[in-house]
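step=encode ok
step=design start
structure_in=
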């Protein structure tokens, strides 16, 4: 892998931060899954969410099967942080950047597994549960769907969720292995 090239390419993207880390550093929690199940309206509605993504144990096994991971974050300023519509409108840009980073890794001949934000919104109506996912190559389950404690990762790498008033911070984790 040409790390220098990758670092140069990453530094040219509008990322707030990126960090390479070992997947073993992640903390997986059944409690995060419980919150999905009991508080998220997207639970059991897409292939990108639980229970379709598998048990937390399955998710952990899959994440840890990759030797390396890359955390990326983006930040966007909006007029009013309390306005959920405005906050969510910043998400497609983060998803597009996540896809760009995945492409950079694939150009370096890496196999990837990507977790990003919220539930998948690629199709107006998800095919779940009656038919397979229409875009498995572009569908990114959200980080929390795998039981990952995002706040732990943020703390470890000095990422401030509340970086400032009216700033929206999004995270993605890209697991990868060189082929
Ligand atoms: S790509 Fe379409 S079918 Fe697949 S999870 Fe996303 S919304 Fe559902």
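sequence_out=
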């Amino acid at each position: 892998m040409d790390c220098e090239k990758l670092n140069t390419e990453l530094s040219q993207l509008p990322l707030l931060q990126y960090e390479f880390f070992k997947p073993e550093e992640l903390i997986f929690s059944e409690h995060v899954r419980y919150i999905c199940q009991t508080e998220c309206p997207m639970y059991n509605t897409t292939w990108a969410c639980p229970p379709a993504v598998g048990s937390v144990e399955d998710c952990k096994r899959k994440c840890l099967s990759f030797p390396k991971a890359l955390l990326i974050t983006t930040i966007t300023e909006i007029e009013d942080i309390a306005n959920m519509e405005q906050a969510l409108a910043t998400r497609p840009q983060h998803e597009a950047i996540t896809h760009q980073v995945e492409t950079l890794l694939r150009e370096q001949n890496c196999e990837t597994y990507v977790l990003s934000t919220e539930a998948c919104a690629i199709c107006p109506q998800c095919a779940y549960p009656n038919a397979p996912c229409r875009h498995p190559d572009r569908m990114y389950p959200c980080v929390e769907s795998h039981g990952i404690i995002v706040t732990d990762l943020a703390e470890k790498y000095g990422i401030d969720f509340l970086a400032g008033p009216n700033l929206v911070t999004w995270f993605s984790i890209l697991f990868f292995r060189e082929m």
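step=design ok
step=annotate ok -> Residues 44 and 151 are 24 Å apart (CA to CA).
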